[in-house]
């Protein structure tokens, strides 16, 4: 039975899907006995190999067919361009956040808006994009945003922190204490921050040299949006 299945798979590959020379087909005959004995699900999980002598079944998996969907039992494989593929359970982050967001595994997705807006309008803009004003949760995230600012020659940008409810009680845009966010660093280049100079500085922004400053929320500034995943 396995022998007939083997030749059927080779015939299907050669006539319909694979672009291979004669040597590839010959090599596939030698390899398919071991491959067919595995479950289709296991085969679906194997990464495509760039070896020109790969078996015919592997070539079938690796043929991109312009993003064609292939069904192997209960496993659905989506192939964009070889050797990259994903299962239906994976999250396509770029579809979720958009191509203008910087996606960093383990940190999040961020976008720097260079258009200057007051803090509240910046907040609404981020919501419209499916996110919120960025909340820094670690020194690594701060370094990431600082690099983006440097690349865009920005000196400061709004973050999702404020003390609008009560003077000195700093919270994130998600209504958690800023101290609990993992990042509450104020710049050391300005003394006694946050200082609420003029009695109107209730929104926080990131400075290009690191650390935050408090500023009048009505001031137009660039801003970071963030989308969590």
From TrEMBL:
What top-level branch of life does the organism fall under? Eukaryota
Read off the Pfam families from this record. Answer: Lectin_C
Q: What SUPFAM superfamilies does this protein map onto?
A: C-type lectin-like (SSF56436)
All residue ranges annotated as the C-type lectin domain in the record:
119-226
What start and end residues bound the annotated signal peptide?
1-20
Q: Does the keyword Aminoacyl-tRNA synthetase apply?
A: no
Its keywords, alphabetically, are: Signal
Name this protein carries in UniProt: Hemolymph lipopolysaccharide-binding protein-like isoform X1
**Organism in which the protein naturally occurs:** Dinoponera quadriceps (South American ant)
